[in-house]
Amino acid sequence: MRLKVDVLPTEEVAYPDVVLVVDVIRATTTATCLLEAGAEALYLVADLEAARAFKDRDVLLAGEVGGLKPPGFDLGNSPREALEAPVGGKVVVLSTTNGTKAAHAAAKTAKHVLLASLFNAHAAARLARELATEEVAILCAGKEGRVGLDDLYTAGVLAEYLGLLGEVEPEDGARIALSVKRAYQDPLEALSLSAAAQALKAVGLEADVPFCAQVAKSAAVPILSGRVGEALIFKKAHPGQAG
What we know:
Layout: E1 2-6, E2 18-22, H1 27-36, E3 41-44, H2 48-52, E4 59-63, H3 79-84, E5 91-95, H4 99-107, E6 112-116, H5 121-131, E7 135-140, H6 149-165, E8 169-170, H7 172-183, H8 187-192, H9 195-202, H10 208-212, E9 221-228, E10 231-237
Parallel strand pairs: 1-7, 1-8, 2-6, 2-7, 3-5, 4-5
Antiparallel strand pairs: 3-10, 9-10
């Protein structure tokens, strides 16, 4: 099975099979936490205006601009907040600067789109392996068009675990991600050095970084299950549910 890592989303790349979308600080970590907290579904939208278009429905709005909760939104993009949020049985509409855009890029062509982070890394890798027939691609969201150390490190963790699950044929991007992972013994060190972590520190949200650095704490995997308008609908899945 081919194993591919793309360090940033691009319009030109087509994905024939399974894509693991990574925005570890913080969108894909927060998405997993919202589903762990009992949200019925996540609607991922590409921008704030698309999120606000859902405001007259029985939904909660979550997201960030510059790391902070946008005016009029119910929740920010903090996974710590998400895990404790009163979202049981609710639909949460999520818009972030980088992660939700990467999910939309993957969804244009992929058969299966999963949201992966360190928090659900092992479960996401296992489910991807179960679903894949020819390729698992890991798509890093990056930060505002630039490669993110945090996402590339997380891609390396996912790639390494996928290799433990069965034989893979890593392409160059996967080999780079594996090298980055092996360069850091501590996930928190890799994440803390990233531009995403530094941006959170600048707005007083640095406590989210150690949370995002936790590995394999959740068995929940957000998986694309449909669309409504411009929104991608993600619901909770677990390894063993493939097919």
